[in-house]
Design a protein that fits this description.
By secondary structure, the chain is α+β, with helices and mostly antiparallel strands. The protein contains eight helices and twelve strands. The longest helix has 18 residues. Strands 1, 2, 3, 4, 5, 6, 7, 8, 9, 10, 11 and 12 form a twelve-stranded mixed beta sheet that branches. The radius of gyration is 19 Å and the shape is globular.
Length: 318
């Protein structure tokens, strides 16, 4: 689909364009909140290290569009994790909204993800934003379950021995174990790129739980601050895979211990509520609801089946 007149793209998004990207991101999301009645909200620019991670994870799926003056007017990051494809963040500069550019950038990402053979294609949006839901619905997306963001405050006394990957020396072995566990539960799903970049750039780590010498559960998390200019104060779990609920609870406790040992005051996790029992486990572990997003899936490209009792959380945000 060609962009509206006066716009060119998609163009490859590069790390050197993060300042422009940040401005479009902050302006467009702030304007969106204001239209939803949250006039006191100002969305901050993000940590450049997080943007570099997101751009490099998306690789060729990191796209942007420019106007005739050469200024960035829109972007969309389309991510491929094996069989799973999702897009976000994506935004159109406020002065270019309602001109057909939103349809252009979503369609470009859809074609990219389809071309990579993704069996699952989706995105997440705020459930209260009915015009966003309507817009995506007209493009072929359908509502799925909620993703509930939960936060748990952490006290220093909860610290303990970490169940981490152990550092660079055994990184390849841990990555192989992690990949084998993911593929065992959801064949074709692949979080290796996200994990490798997280570890290489010291943005966070892997917490892994083993039983009888085999991986039973893992959590990939970031501790680098999300917003620009802020100090590290939390751990955010990006991906979590557990063979059973006992492993799920154990790996979440492991991340809590990790946060406490690092002097970080919170653990955040985005729970896909299709896993009802796991959601209840998080409430029992002291997590509190912070935010909600609606997961929307494109056409018939639904999420894969997961073996009974297993838990697979794949965060569709950076």
């Amino acid at each position: 689909m060609s962009p509206p007149e006066g716009v060119r793209g998609p163009l490859r998004l590069e790390p050197g364009q993060i300042d422009e990207l940040n401005r479009v991101f902050s302006e467009s999301f702030t304007e969106r909140y204001h239209r939803d009645g949250m006039t006191g909200v100002r969305v901050p620019q993000l940590n450049q290290a997080i943007w570099r991670y997101a751009i490099d994870v998306a690789a060729e799926g990191a796209m942007h569009w420019r106007d005739d003056n050469g200024a960035m007017v829109a972007f969309n990051l389309a991510h491929v994790s094996g069989r799973e494809g999702w897009m976000g963040p994506l935004a159109v500069r406020p002065d270019w909204q309602a001109k057909g550019l939103g349809r252009t950038i979503v369609t470009a990402a859809l074609r990219f993800l389809e071309g990579r053979g993704c069996a699952t294609i989706g995105l997440e949006t705020m459930p209260r934003t009915v015009d966003n839901i309507g817009f995506y619905s007209r493009l072929g997306f359908r509502p799925g379950h909620l993703t509930v963001s939960l936060i748990r405050e952490v006290g220093r006394a909860e610290g303990g021995p970490a169940a981490r990957n152990g550092g660079a020396a055994d990184r390849s072995g841990v990555m192989a174990e992690a990949g084998a566990l993911v593929d065992e539960l959801v064949p074709g799903l692949d979080f290796s790129r996200e994990a490798a970049l997280t570890l290489e750039r010291s943005l966070g780590d892997l917490t892994m739980i083993r039983a009888a010498g085999r991986p039973r559960a893992l959590a990939l998390w970031h501790s680098a601050p999300l917003a620009a200019g802020r100090s590290a104060d939390e751990i955010r779990i990006l991906k979590l895979v557990a063979a059973d609920r006992a492993g799920f609870r154990e790996v979440v406790r492991g991340v809590i211990r990790e946060a406490a040992s690092r002097g970080l005051g919170r653990v955040g996790i985005r729970c896909q509520t299709a896993f009802r029992e796991a959601y209840g486990d998080l409430i029992d572990l002291g997590f509190k609801v912070h935010w909600t997003d609606l997961r929307m899936l494109y056409d018939d490209r639904t999420e894969p089946a997961v073996p009974g009792g297993a838990v697979v959380f794949s965060n569709w945000e950076i």
